[in-house]
Amino acid sequence: MFARIATAAAVAVAMSTGAVARDYVSIAGSSTVLPFATIVAERLGRNPQFKTPVVESGGSSVGKKGVCDGVGTEFIDIGNASSRMKTGELEYCDKNGVKITEVKVGYDGIVVANSKKGQLLEISLADLGKALTAKVPACELRNYNCAGEFVDNPYKKWSDVNPALPDVEIRVYGPPTTSGTRASFAEIVNEGAYGKVKVVADALKASKQKSSALRAMRTDGAYVEAGEQDNLIVQKLNEDPNAYGIFGFSYLDQNSDTLQGSVLSGVAPTFDAIADGSYKASRALFMYVKHQHVGVVPGIAEYMTEWTKHWGDDGALSDAGMIPMPKAERDEMAARMKNLPVLVAADLK
Q: How many angstroms separate the Cα of 115 from the Cα of each of 235, 239, 259, 311?
């Protein structure tokens, strides 16, 4: 039985806002988590005791901010995210008196894909970061000590980055700044891989910049923000064989008849490669549950229970492309759903 942590006072606060009380669970956030959260919502909706939860997209930052916006049924109950909450985001929760529990629900790979009519991209993570980061060290372009000088990314074609790459214009469709997929990509690829290249690391040190400066994506047309709907990126790739797109593995899995995943640092994006960690562009998926709404809005506890029925190795979520957590981790997260430990800043360090 799930803990019913909402007190009478919390119920009063929730219902005194002037909003009409909801009789369904309201969820928003990551476009990557969206298809999985929708599957779970639809399964819960088969139970005549509960209305099908409403799951909306908007991006990870929308999910994390939305769940922290306040207490009351005009605010969402659960925020989905494909990037973990940061301490600053949790401070916003604290400011608004919102208590949340963090629940990891699975893993996902970040893929770079294109139409099967185009050329397969086989590229190192470092070269991928070099192609898409907004600024590159001048030392990379000029044969002198640039003392940490950075310039706008000049590379026009993939072959400008590395002669072994396709001789076509760099054009990559990807998510906007509100997206956890974009945040994770920039951290893993731009900062984590490209930032470790010696000339780049030396330039950062000389300019007294942190490697996080590399997370900014190009704004000159090489990287094109295509909104939070990954299906729109898939559509653009089918229309333009020379373009590439960035999105979660599940969208590649669902469109494998027309799209191919790029090989990153020698590893193709497959279910097994993401699960065993050999495919490095991967991340965890989360949901953030608002304590004060549990026991007020019907179905929140049951919605969480529904996740546990489908997130195993042979479950509906795995069939849809989500990478399951190991059993021990699933057990730990199921316990969190019952005990609802309050997320505090120390947990995020």
A: 10, 8, 5, 30
Place of tokens 């969820």: 27
- Is the entire prediction scored with pTM above 0.70? yes
Pick the CATH number of 109-282 from 3.40.640.10, 3.40.50.2300, 3.90.1150.10, 3.40.190.10: 3.40.190.10
The total of other beta-carbon atoms located within 10 Å of residue 319's CB is 11
Phi then psi for residue 89, to 5 deg, are: -70, -35
> At 143, is the pLDDT very low, low, confident or very high (cuts 50, 70, 90)?
low
Alpha-carbon distance 138 to 142, whole Å? 6
The model's pLDDT over 1-31, given as tens digits with 9 standing for 90+, comes to 333 333 434 443 444 443 447 899 999 999 9
CA gap 130, 195 in Å, rounded: 9
CATH topology of domain 8-108+283-348: D-Maltodextrin-Binding Protein; domain 2 (3.40.190)
Domains 8-108+283-348 and 109-282 share a fold: yes
User: Whose CA is closest to 322, among 29, 37, 26?
Assistant: 37
